[in-house]
Design brief:
The chain is α/β, with parallel strands linked by helices. The protein is built from 9 helices and 5 strands. It has a single domain, classed as P-loop containing nucleotide triphosphate hydrolases (Rossmann fold, 3-Layer(aba) Sandwich), CATH 3.40.50. The structure holds adenosine-5'-diphosphate.
Length: about 190
């Protein structure tokens, strides 16, 4: 099964992806994590993305499409994957559909976590207060910009996947376990 977890920055996609990895054995393919690993490793790709990511801008479509295709061809994705933070633009979604079609696969379901902006800002502020390890793009100012980028470039995917009949919208404001339960119910519905 190939799933897309979709939603604004800080909606909880990573948390729910990890749950899907544990319960269904589907690897989490997070372009954000892959890009941060490339920055950490100091690769040319990492260096080319570092400034854009720190500002909350998107990196070029070709960059993420390339790293996703390479990752998807690893053997652990043979039964599918959870795409987290990808696709983020309509061209990325079209490229993903093509990549899967070439491999005889498809996206089965797109799970949208709906969370309002005020709650997302409150989450980033509480992370700052808690003083955990913060990402360079995890500040209220950059989050506001990441949200603008989300509404402009990424939100159009809601219509794209609705038209394909694959979109399931979930209440991402609910407690973590309740969101997980909604995902389980959506997957059971899709498998039935
Ligand atoms: P979040 O969902 O919290 O915004 P991510 O870890 O998914 O965080 O992404 C962090 C940053 O990495 C984005 O703001 C963007 O700069 C870059 N990025 C991640 N995935 C993509 C993508 N699919 N397309 C373009 N840029 C991406």
């Amino acid at each position: 099964m190939n799933l897309v977890l979709f939603g604004p920055p800080g909606a909880g996609k990573g948390t729910q992806s990890r749950f899907l990895t544990e319960t269904r054995g589907l690897p989490q393919l997070s372009t954000g994590d892959m890009l941060r690993a490339a920055i950490e490793a100091g690769t040319p790709l990492g260096l080319s993305c570092k400034a854009l990511m720190a500002k909350g801008e998107l990196v070029p479509d070709e960059t993420v499409i390339g790293i996703i295709a390479e990752r998807y061809d690893r053997p652990d994705c043979k039964n599918g994957a959870v795409f987290d933070g990808f696709p983020r633009t309509v061209p990325q979604a079209e490229a993903l559909d093509r990549m899967l079609a070439e491999r005889g696969k498809k996206i089965d379901l797109v799970l949208e976590l709906k969370v309002d902006d005020a709650a997302l800002l409150a989450r980033v502020e509480s992370r700052i207060k808690a003083g955990g390890v913060l990402r360079s793009d995890d500040t209220p100012e950059t989050l506001k910009h990441r949200l603008e980028v989300y509404y402009k470039n990424t939100a159009p995917l809601i219509g794209f996947y609705k038209a394909q009949g694959k979109l399931v919208s979930l209440d991402g404001m609910a407690p973590i376990e309740k969101v997980t339960a909604q995902i389980e119910a959506a997957l059971k519905g899709a498998e039935a």
